[in-house]
Amino acid sequence: xxxxxxxxxxxxxxxxFAFVLLLVCGTLAMAQTAQNVAFKxxxxxxxxxxxxxxxxxxxLHNEADWDRYWSMALSNGxxxxxxxxxxxxxxxxxxxxxxxxxxxxxxxxTGGYTAKxxxxxxxxxRYDVAxxxxxxxxxxxxxxxxxxxxxxxxxGVPDVNITVNQKSGPMRMGMGRKNPIGTEIIVYG
Length: 189
Known about the structure:
By secondary structure, the protein is α+β, with helices and mostly antiparallel strands. Helices cover 22% and strands 28% of the residues. The protein has two domains: 1-31; 35-168, no CATH class.
């Protein structure tokens, strides 16, 4: 009877031991080190002002994602003769090997703000994207702006975590490069 009781305890403990072993192995596998990810700033063939008024990020896996993103975030009412939004064809994007990540900082009360990706690392199934928000320095236009940046990364983007760090911009007495409507733009790349 004593031997049977020990055997039944062993049979009960065996699945618990297996579960604990799987849990420990899974935790060790997830505790991976961060790996730098190669990225490039991506700028559509024409620079457009964003119109996303809240902090947002978008992962664009294919051209259909780009078209939805374009009409929601960047098109600014550019339409054809029938009133349909005109999509900006994403130039130089091979959707089989590349995906895009768009980061919008939201509305700012003045010009002079820019967004620049400082680095991308992969930790397990997550991309950590560090974004520098460059604050205005000197005189700026007094109107709402919507700073954003887009980067291209290797295809297969997992979950994305965005961290924004504010940095002081250079002090200047006037505007930087101007687009046709006079707002400051920064083109990376």
